[in-house]
From TrEMBL:
<keyword id="KW-1133">Transmembrane helix</keyword>
<dbReference type="Pfam" id="PF13431">
    <property type="entry name" value="TPR_17"/>
</dbReference>
<dbReference type="InterPro" id="IPR014266">
    <property type="entry name" value="PEP-CTERM_TPR_PrsT"/>
</dbReference>
<dbReference type="InterPro" id="IPR019734">
    <property type="entry name" value="TPR_rpt"/>
</dbReference>
<keyword id="KW-0812">Transmembrane</keyword>
<protein>
    <submittedName>
        <fullName>PEP-CTERM system TPR-repeat protein PrsT</fullName>
    </submittedName>
</protein>
<dbReference type="Pfam" id="PF14559">
    <property type="entry name" value="TPR_19"/>
</dbReference>
<comment type="similarity">
    <text>Belongs to the Tom70 family.</text>
</comment>
<dbReference type="GO" id="GO:0008320">
    <property type="term" value="F:protein transmembrane transporter activity"/>
</dbReference>
<feature type="repeat" description="TPR">
    <location>
        <begin position="801"/>
        <end position="834"/>
    </location>
</feature>
<dbReference type="GO" id="GO:0030150">
    <property type="term" value="P:protein import into mitochondrial matrix"/>
</dbReference>
<keyword id="KW-0802">TPR repeat</keyword>
<dbReference type="GO" id="GO:0030943">
    <property type="term" value="F:mitochondrion targeting sequence binding"/>
</dbReference>
<dbReference type="Pfam" id="PF13432">
    <property type="entry name" value="TPR_16"/>
</dbReference>
<keyword id="KW-0677">Repeat</keyword>
<dbReference type="GO" id="GO:0016020">
    <property type="term" value="C:membrane"/>
</dbReference>
<feature type="repeat" description="TPR">
    <location>
        <begin position="467"/>
        <end position="500"/>
    </location>
</feature>
Amino acid sequence: MKFVKASLYLSVALALTACSEQVSVESHLKNAKIYLNENKVNESIIELKNAISGDSQNAEARFLLGQVYLNLGDGAAAVKELEHAKQFNYAANKVLPLLARAYILTDSDIDVLELSGEASKLANEEHSRYLAYQTLAALRSEQPEQAKESATLAQSLGQENLYSMLASAYLALSENNYDEVSSLISRILVIDAKQVDALMLQGQVSMVTKDYQQAANSFKEYLALQPRSGIVQILLADSLLKSGQDKEAEKHADAILAKVANQPFAHYIKAMVAFNAKNFTKASEHAETALSANFNQFNLKLVAGASAFYIKNWQQSHRHLSSVVKYLPKDHQARRMLAVTQLELGLVDEISATIGDFEGSQAGEAQFLSALSYKLLALGATDEAKKLLEQTESVTAKSASDNARQGILKLMMNDPSGIEDLQEAIALDPEFIEAELALAYAALQSNDIDQAREIAVKWQEKYPDKAGGYSLLASIAIKEQKYEAAEAALKQSLVLEPDNLFALMEQLRLARQQNNETLSKKRADYLVKLAPSNNKVLRSYFGVYQNEMALATLQTAYQADKADINKAVLVAEAMISLSQYKEAEGLLASLAESPNLPKRYWQLMIYNLKKLNDGRNIQSVLEKWLKASPYHLDPVILLADLHASTGNNERALTVVKRGLEYHQDNVMLQLVNMQLLLNSKKIIDAKALYETLATVNINEALKAGFLGRILLLEEKFTPAIPKLTLLYQTYPSSQNAGYLAGAYLGNKEEAEAIKVLEGYLLIDPNENRIKTMLAGLYLQDDTSKAITVYDDVVSKQPKNVIAHNNLAWLYLKQNKIDKALLHAKEAFSLAPEIPNIADTYGQVLLQAGDNKEALKYASKAFDLTQGKDSDIALNYVEVLIANSHFDEAKVTIKKIVTNTTEQSDKKTQLLSRL
């Protein structure tokens, strides 16, 4: 019989694999809190992750880690940890408000709203905090009534409460009451100048009101407070671009692209900056990259087409300009560009349609038409040339400055995604009345009512037979809450252009704003009958009814157009909102092979699997998400953490490495990668990564620790000791104590190892892993100390196999058979497949006189080692003799090769008994 390797070998092994062994959660939590107080964020994250590795259900560690991520603006990581904290029953008054904000950051509005029942039980302050986020989630989910109820309830809980004011601000924003929003934000920031949600709202309102410099200032403050927020850097870049700070805007775009090489909005910024600088080649490259990522914005296509035109890439220019020409005023310069590209490509038949209604009212325009006509004649397109020549006959004013008018200007356009106003669309002549209609809606969104009304009147005077002017007047009236005037304008719009969808949608919005349920349903019914495949109509329709009948309507539309992924996602959302999780799962699964799946699809998949308690398939979905969108950080973080939490370091390592391909300069991913490499004993890779980390601005002790662990794995104990000493002195954790003790043991300095371990127990007397290591060292020279330590360990860790096994052996040596049996039996029940455990149990049973049972366990230990362990084989022979199995004992003992004097003596003694 022998010990489980718990002396030098065990201590070194434990030191080398400390991350995967039992670690004191309390110690990690304590260290994490110290680091948090010292604002050492990265170090606190590492400690909290170590705590979770030791106890994956520790609610406090999960909460603190989620709180750290939330403070960094990392919504996805915060959601994961805070959901765990909630699941493990962490205090609801602390976790629910934070979880609600994390859901807001990840656009998980459904999740926010579903917290309502639990949040209602919170105290007033925490409840009002949640209600602010519930208000925003309801607004984003097109549930204005619920938003109003949330804001009203928040006010009733405390009118001057910071979060009740935030809820009111969100509501005021939805009603386009920007003065009220600004007033509320100012009051909030007086209370807390670093209130990030208020800063975000301030930036967004400033964008709407065209105070782009203020928007940039707000977003800069937000980014400083929440440095991992991806969206705010995008918003900041856009505000800087709009405020004319092209260089700084491009700097932020470059920072985004350094992390996410294919981020479309960043490429959009780069394209606009390059275009403004007349670097058309660069503008074209970035515009193409953004468009290839489905960032199909009108003004971006215009820039792409115009840039390609200037660098004479006719095919590319034609592709983009032909897709937007129908939305341009008839005298827009881009039409001229398209006509030239058509000419260059030999598409003569298309030219007439492109500029057929072009009115050459100025000399420069006449010159263009004349030049184009000449080229057409040269090509032999006589009829087309004549048409253009006829148009030039009405020109009366001619000027040499007309050639300069071929330059480009920015045409302001609203971003269809609703995130922010995009850069003004490129226009060649801002004097055109047609261009002003688009500008009017931009003015309306920025609350410039007078400018919008002036343009609307001008449009009506110039085009009295078109509905656009009346639709614009209606939109103005809605903003001013003049509902009767809005209804009248929309009716006139529908007289001029019957069933125009814009007017009908505005009518439905009017009814819903006035809480007229009957009229809302009537108008929703008419709309869905008129445009049964329009996604915006379908979403509004379900928003009105929210029942099985409305879901059936959405399903019918989807069945008629299964190629539209957005329809499928809309149906799935509706199913989930009606708690039809199995049905949603089936629908979402059927879309899995579709290309370019939107982010919302993946979010719904994960959310629905959680609702179904199907944790097994979450990994599969995360892997597919990562494959489909490898530049997203969300699936990298979630998937790596999932693997690490189950002890699968190799798979976690693979995921992190994949993430580093797209985020190679992300220090946190590099640190996690190093930990995983060391835990997996990949020395060569760890050394290569260390060369990179050595140049990074991180704590020197951390760098020394990495190098020390590498040297420890290489069994270069002497140089490892000073490195690990610095690490331990700077970060005195049990894990680092184990590394240092392991280095001393490898260097045959057992006394120093004991000193380190005993010293750490003065810091944390309850660290059982350190006690186990220490007791293993005491075994050789001080059995009483070893028994005392092991007894303390099993009292706190009743499932500590090593402690039970070694106590059994120690008590056996003291002839305390009852105690030896108790611990041997417990050790075997915990680890029946470890040979030394079975061997110990067999020896204790033999000394207790139960020879038959002793043979059972001695035989198991012998079989597990296949007779290759000499100590276990000799013990087996001893038990065979005790059971009178002499023949088998003789055969077995002949095969045993002894390696030590002790083994030789025992073999001789057994042979004498045979």
